[in-house]
Specification:
Blueprint: E1 16-21, E2 26-31, E3 37-41, H1 55-74
Antiparallel strand pairs: 1-2, 2-3
This protein binds zinc ion.
C-alpha cells in the first residue's frame, strides 16, 4: 500500500490505519491514538452486491477516502 495519509487532524499523530474489512463490509480510516475515524460501508459505496468487491474497486474507494481524510486535515491548517 502506497497510500499517503496525513496525520490525525485531532491529535496530530501519524498512526493512521486504512483498512478494508470484508467481515463487516466496511472501509475505514482511523487514528490509532484517539477516536478519529472515517467509515464507509460497502453499501454506501454503491456496489451492486456488497459481498463481491474487486481489489480494483476497493482500491478506488480507498483512494477517495484517503483524499477526503487528507482534505479534512487541511482544514484550519
Ligand atoms: Zn488521533
Amino acid at each position: 500500500m502506497d497510500i499517503k495519509l496525513k496525520p490525525c487532524p485531532f491529535c496530530g499523530c501519524e498512526h493512521i490505519i486504512a483498512e478494508i474489512n470484508y467481515m463487516s463490509k466496511r472501509f475505514a480510516i482511523y487514528c490509532e491514538d484517539c477516536i478519529a475515524v472515517m467509515e464507509l460501508s460497502f453499501i454506501d459505496a454503491q456496489f451492486d452486491d456488497g459481498s463481491f468487491i474487486s481489489f480494483y474497486e476497493a482500491r478506488k474507494v480507498m483512494d477517495e477516502m484517503t483524499e477526503q481524510w487528507n482534505r479534512r486535515t487541511n482544514n484550519g491548517a
